[in-house]
Automatic annotation (TrEMBL):
Family stated for the protein in its record: Belongs to the Dps family.
This enzyme's EC code(s): 1.16.-.-
Organism: Nocardia cerradoensis
Name of the molecule in the record: DNA protection during starvation protein 2
Annotated keywords: Oxidoreductase
Length: 158
């Protein structure tokens, strides 16, 4: 039995738990920031962008739940409290108030890409310890990068 295996099964090391916590806070912040943008976007192509932001919010919320539940399955304790998320996320702060559609596209695309960058940064060390968890990250990276491409395409040619 390795140090991360017990008679009860595989347990995350402190490093793996820390990596997943980083991913969790960025996904949670992406979810919250996406909703903030959704509520306050105005301007040309409002309705389509408003709906597209909900798709991003749903993806981030689902992914954060998957990561938190994976942490629990590996006997790690996720922390998604607002203060923790605010203090630990790597995502840039969104400006307050109404934002025009073009700005929201750029702001939220950056939010998604920053979240993916965190996943890519921790990926190899996660994979070295637990390939099953790395597979979850693969699927999330694929989905979020697609959403970033679709969203960023709104501003192409402007």
């Amino acid at each position: 039995m390795t140090q991360t295996e017990t008679r009860l099964g595989f347990r995350a090391s402190a490093q793996l738990a820390g990596h997943l916590q980083r991913v969790l806070v960025d996904l949670t912040a992406l979810h919250l920031n996406g909703k903030q943008a959704h509520w306050n976007v105005v301007g040309h192509n409002f309705r389509d962008l408003h709906l597209q932001l909900d798709e991003i919010v749903d993806a981030a919320r689902d992914a954060s739940d998957t990561i938190a539940e994976r942490m629990r399955a590996l006997d790690a304790v996720p922390d998604g409290r607002p203060r923790t998320v605010s203090a630990a996320t790597g995502l840039p702060v969104l400006p307050p108030g109404e934002q025009d559609t073009s700005s929201v596209v750029d702001l939220v695309t950056t939010q998604i890409r920053t979240t993916v960058a965190t996943m890519r940064e921790v990926h190899d060390e996660v994979d070295a310890e637990d390939s099953s968890t790395a597979d979850l990250l693969h699927a999330m990276i694929d989905q979020l990068e697609k959403l970033a491409w679709l969203l960023s395409s709104e501003n192409r040619g402007r």
